[in-house]
Amino acid sequence: MRLSRSALLYPALGLGAIAVGLAIAFGGSEVARADAPARDYSALAAELDGDMKKLTFHSAPKAVSTSTFTTQDGGTATLADFEGKYVLLNFWATWCAPCRKEMPMLSELQTEFGGDDFEVLTLATGRNPVPAIEGFFDEIGVTNLPTHRDPGQKVARDMGVLGLPITVIIDPEGREVARMQGDAHWSSDSAKAMIAGLIQPAE
User: Fold this and answer.
1) Whole-model pTM?
2) Whole domain around residue 132: which residue ranges?
3) How far apart are CA 131 and CA 154, in angstroms?
């Protein structure tokens, strides 16, 4: 089995040393994949409402990090391990109040849509001790999301994550196609219709 924007932004403590130039350069890189033409997401974007309007679909796919992160079982993985499905990648931290607010909604998305075509991937970025992560999930009653960690902030740094939470949508070819900064109502009808449209495109 393969491993599987909130008006108020919360600064990611510990990410201040990120080289902004590098983040911009990486985030702006376009992926050329002759065998996988870029999909047109304009119809999905046009249907977003409420705070889901903060989700920005890119005009062209962008590269994602190739750095490793620590999996919940202590191993390592990269985002490439999740190719073949749409991935909603959420960068978060245990000290992040809006992360606590939206995590149960992300869990609901995983319950409703998780499978061969879609997965919610949560990645605790920075100093997040394992007991703190497990306690966080226990307190909010989330049992179906991974406790993966990016302790050295390598993945976050590569992808220009300058605040938390940030959520990125990755297509089955492993390319970033959309991004939101800040928390959102991920259990809203708008969010669910968007996810359904990703995995079951209209004919």
Assistant:
1) 0.83
2) 10-31+38-199
3) 21
